[in-house]
Structures are given as structure tokens and as C-alpha cells.
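Q: What structure does this chain adopt?
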Amino acid sequence: MALRRSDAYALLTEYTKNDNLIKHALGVEAAMRFYARKLGQEEELFGLTGLLHDFDYERWPDPADHPLKGCRILTEKGYPPEMIHAIQGHANYLNVPRESTLDRALFAVDELVGFITAVALVRPSKKVADVEVKSVRKKLKDKAFARTCSREDIETGAKELGLDLDTHIGNVLEAMKGVADQLGL
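A:
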């Protein structure tokens, strides 16, 4: 199957109506494309994996269903097995080992994109352009802030990519700043 962003985006918006979930998918896509370029990987595969990683979440948020129902749909539509494996691996509770760079990158960026979005939204400007690595680090220490974002997953993700946390945060910030208009940030 040839990977086409237009098809992936249509699938995302067929299953996801919540604007914030769509923006999250766009943010994860941008971060995945950034890492594909940085690590010499296939950008379309990385980007579309990020775009589709949670496409089923709005309909089936329960861990018994997400992302398994979505992965079944992706399999039926002919999406590549490595994409499906990475999407399964981003859900810790499935205990799918993160073996490839694709697997590790998706896990590493997912929570961090959500966290950086939360940091941007509490800035007076509500702009990701005004977010710095040090402000993200400061908010990570505040356990009450964005408490549903797993700090452990964010730290583990950076380690699995072989990066220190500040570098990883800076990379994801740069990626998100590149699509800030699409993210409404």
C-alpha cells in the first residue's frame, strides 16, 4: 500500500471529531516527521504513524479497545505492519516491546506533545513559540500540572531514543513550532 497523507487524514477525521484530539495527532505527526528527518528514517511512515496513533481513541478510549480496534482497521486497510506495531507499542498496557526506531519515536513524542500543548496553553500568549525548554522542565516538576501526562513515559521515551531530556524537549518544541498554526498554538 502506498502511504498517502490525504488517506490517513481522512481516516483520522472519519473517526475523530474532537478538534483537540485532531490537533494532538497533528502535533505528534510533526514531531515524528522531525525525528524521521533527524534519524534518517522514512518520513511518510513516521509522520502517518504519528497522525494515526490515536485515531480510534474518541470512539474506543477504553484500554481493552484502544488502540487494538484501530489497529484492526489499519490492518484491514493495508497499512504497514511496522506502523501497527508502533501504535500498539505506544500503549504501555499492551506490553508490546518497542524494538524499532519507529516504535521508540512514537512512544517518546506522544506524551510530550500533550504536555507541551498544556504548557503553551497556560502562557499568556497561548503560543508554543513562547515556550522554552526550561519552562517545560519547570512544569514537569509540578505534579499537579497536567497530571494525566505521565512524566515517567516522557523520561523513558527520551532515554529509549538515546537523548537527554532537554534535547528531546527542544526537538519536539521545534517540530511543534513548525506547525503552530495547524495546532492553534
